[in-house]
From TrEMBL:
Entry similarity comment: Belongs to the kynureninase family.
Name of the protein this chain belongs to: Kynureninase
Superkingdom of origin organism: Bacteria
Organism whose genome encodes this protein: Nocardioides perillae
Classification lineage: Bacteria, Bacillati, Actinomycetota, Actinomycetes, Propionibacteriales
Catalytic activity: L-kynurenine + H2O = anthranilate + L-alanine + H(+); 3-hydroxy-L-kynurenine + H2O = 3-hydroxyanthranilate + L-alanine + H(+)
One GO CC annotation: cytoplasm
């Protein structure tokens, strides 16, 4: 009997799941066995089952047993140890260039101020008009503080910044190009190496926001020549709500990094308690306050899994999931007036898909009541965040069938 070829057939989804080499990993996640459909992995990933035991052990043995000794024994270096783990598993970054701590917003501010300081005398920051609000708000704050000018790239919200778009605004006054690698709204996957080269050709530095790509799209920051990058860990890295962010700075810039939040943990000798701030060597100078140790626990479990699976396999599954979602949307939702608000070409699409309809806000509210959890983004966008290791093809079909039924 020939396998089914109709993507709307339940047997088609079942066949994709049966052939999926990453399918068995779904059982490693809390809640994956329930009928709830989770389409928000690009906002908050499911926790791994092993993390519950890790948290219990930490409370009873490390925190409760070792107490203050934990700082000398492991915790003090954890921002750099976990940073190296992110760099190796997800970023294509050699050791000593990634630190974990603070929120994405705080690290973005620190990284942008440091990036501007690398190009004294230059007065412009280039960014995307449709980028995530925090990126735009932080850039505006830095511009006010330093008397800089923001140069905007205007883009189609269903697409994103192209190489030509960037080349059209970058020039001799550009200090920093600040862009998201994957657009939060459309999932547009920017050509990071080419745009980085455009910035460098103009004498500028580039700062990438990797929040919607890390753990979903393979990255090669060292090979691409990236200067600085930031990203969160609670989306595809499953670090949990409020898990700390990470910052990457290429080793070639470390001696010149001048970040504005000069806390004691970034000091060359924190316990000297000296009168003046002397920056620590290397990436540690980007650390400010006491490391969020508890917030890094779940993240370590996911990094081990990603290192074992490998980002190429994760990306292959991600493309398959989003492509299947697009196929179902074409078959079921396009006749109901739904438009694809993401790139159709998977080479230009990250790990989520946005579907547009004037009544999607109401649809999303109703879906949540039915235990189908996407999220909503204006204008009229239902966003499907498909986390490759915890999402099945059958789950995608079940959720989109619910969208179809509501719209119909």
């Amino acid at each position: 009997m020939a396998p089914p070829t109709d993507p709307t057939d339940p047997a088609y989804a079942a066949g994709l799941d049966a052939a999926d080499p990453l399918g068995p990993h779904r059982d490693l996640f809390v809640g994956a066995e329930t009928p709830l459909v989770y389409f928000d992995g690009n906002s908050l990933g499911r926790p791994l089952r092993v993390t519950g035991e890790r948290l219990r052990t930490f409370v009873e043995e490390e925190w409760g047993g070792r107490l203050i000794r934990g700082w000398d024994e492991a915790w003090m270096d954890l921002p750099l140890v976990v940073g190296d783990g992110i760099g190796a598993a997800c970023l294509g970054a050699a050791a000593g260039q990634v630190a974990v701590g603070d929120s994405t917003t705080v690290l973005l501010y620190k990284a942008l101020r440091a990036a501007v300081a690398l190009r004294p005398g230059r007065t412009e920051v280039v960014l995307n008009r449709d980028d995530f609000p925090t990126d735009r708000y932080v850039a505006a704050s830095v511009a006010r503080e330093l008397g800089l000018t923001l140069r905007w790239i205007e883009v189609d919200p269903a697409a994103g910044v192209s190489v030509d778009d960037a080349a059209g605004v970058v020039g001799e006054r550009t200090a920093v190009v600040l862009l998201s690698h994957v657009a939060y709204r459309s999932a547009w996957l920017a050509d990071a190496p080419a745009i980085t080269a455009v910035a460098h050709d103009a004498g500028a530095v580039v700062l990438w926001d990797l929040s919607h790509s890390v753990g979903s799209v393979p990255l090669a920051l060292d090979d691409w020549g990236v200067d600085l990058a930031v990203g969160c860990t609670y989306k595809y890295l499953d670090g949990g709500p409020g898990a700390p962010a990470f910052v990457y700075a290429a080793a070639r810039h470390h001696e010149g990094l001048d970040q504005p939040v000069t806390g004691w943990m970034g000091h060359a000798d924190p316990f000297a308690m000296g009168p003046d701030w002397v920056p620590a060597p290397g990436i540690r100078r980007m650390v400010s306050g006491t490391p969020p140790i508890v917030g890094m626990l779940a993240l370590q479990d996911m990094l081990r899994l990603l290192a074992a699976v490998g980002m190429p396999a994760v990306r292959q599954k991600s493309v398959a999931l989003t492509s299947y979602a697009v196929d179902l949307a074409d078959a079921w939702l396009a006749p109901l007036g739904v438009a694809l608000a993401s790139p159709r070409d998977p080479e230009r699409r990250g790990g989520h898909v946005t579907l547009s309809h004037p009544r999607m806000r109401e649809v999303v509210a109703a879906l949540w009541q039915a235990d189908v959890l996407p999220d909503y983004r204006d204008p009229g966008g239902l966003r499907l965040g498909l986390s490759p290791l915890s999402t099945s093809f059958t789950e995608v079909r079940t959720g989109l069938a619910a969208v179809r039924d509501l719209l119909a």
